[in-house]
Design a protein that fits this description.
Length: 227
């Protein structure tokens, strides 16, 4: 049973949508405040929390900080909803959420992100769009592809190679104006070919990338986010 905690007024935006959230196997909890969302998460251990950045008693940053710094609570995907003000968007970048959306909310995009997060392992860092060439091996067979986004915990890339969820691959890529990284990774998401494309999208999770790779990824992502 997947568990999703949604801020009360955000839930209203999604009501009436004929989406996978209405199916069995997903339980929705409604929270009137970020404090309530935190209390619910302590009780039910949610898979995803959708919270608002600006709330009177507890901000979105505080909620994220309390969750990410708690070993028992951190394994959850966090989505933060904010205004479209530059200051709020910058705050969201810093609060260690998996994704954030500005108001007015595009419900289709929010549902798409929910679907992705419910079907892959939770990520602990924001993803940054990036297109670099990836060279890899799966069961000793070489493949190539191009990244679409990346985080310190994994990436999404496109390749014509046929890979499967659960496959362990070795991949190598170079960050712009940085170092080359080689790491083992697990395929945690497979998305088939889209119309007009001859390649598949794959989500991968790095497996023990090592301090050098983590340091290079963290430094690169930090540099991008503060621009």
């Amino acid at each position: 049973m997947k568990k999703v905690i949604i801020a009360k007024d955000i839930k209203r935006v999604l009501e009436g949508e004929k989406s996978f959230l209405n199916r069995s196997g997903i339980r929705i909890f409604t929270a009137a405040s970020n404090e309530k969302a935190l209390a619910l998460h302590r009780s039910v251990k949610a898979d995803i929390i959708i919270a608002k950045l600006n709330m009177p008693e507890m901000s979105g940053e505080r909620l994220c900080s309390l969750i990410r710094d708690d070993e028992e609570l951190r394994s959850v995907s966090l989505i933060i909803i904010c205004s479209d003000a530059d200051a709020d968007l910058e705050r969201c970048v810093q609060c260690r959420a998996n994704a954030f959306f500005s108001s007015p909310i595009n419900s289709a995009l929010l549902l798409q992100e929910l679907h992705k997060l419910l079907h892959v392992a939770p990520r602990m860092s924001c993803r940054i769009p990036l297109s670099v060439k990836v060279r890899g091996k799966s069961k000793a067979m070489p493949f190539t592809g191009y990244t679409e986004n990346i985080s310190t915990s994994g990436m999404l890339f496109r390749s014509s190679a046929l890979l499967f969820e659960g496959d362990v691959v070795t991949c190598s890529f170079s960050l712009p104006r940085s170092t080359q990284i080689t790491a083992n990774a697990e395929i945690v998401r497979f998305v088939g070919k889209e119309a007009g494309h001859d390649s598949n999208d794959y989500g991968i999770r790095f497996i023990n990338p090592g301090p050098r790779a983590i340091s290079a990824l963290s430094a690169f992502l930090k540099k991008i986010m503060i621009r």
